[in-house]
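Researcher: Please translate sequence to structure tokens.
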Amino acid sequence: MRPAVRKSVYAGIAGLSLAGTVAACAPSAGDSSPAPAATGSSTTGSTPAPGASTPAGSGADYKDGTYSADGTYVSPNGTETVGVELTLASGTVTDVQITQHPSNPNTRKFQGEFAGGIAGQVVGKNIDQLNVSKVAGSSLTSGGFNQAVEQIKSEAR
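Model: Translation complete:
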């Protein structure tokens, strides 16, 4: 391949890579509202006593306490990890802490923004209703957060 063509190909690939990174991390007008809760989730656990009624998604199947898990997600820089610690009371999130595990400065920035905005999205909500899509402009970190929440739900049953 001729050097001029090779440079053009490399420049095109670099431009597409940069555009993809910027598009995936750019804030949108919908940043302030949480994503709708996932549907079709199955629950396992003890069967309520006869005559007892437990509303669906009430959180009665979860033990109170503080739980933590790591979730992973793929960014333009590779696989990233984010730590999540949730405190539950009657199935409701009363506190959330994020442990950042950045592999580069860009990841550090987005995980930091996510950590700064996640409490407003999840505190006071039932754990079964958690499914965030974008927090404070960080859309990829949400995937790791949601994965960690699923692990926490399993542990808290």
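Researcher: Any highlights?
Model: The two ends are 60 Å apart (CA to CA).
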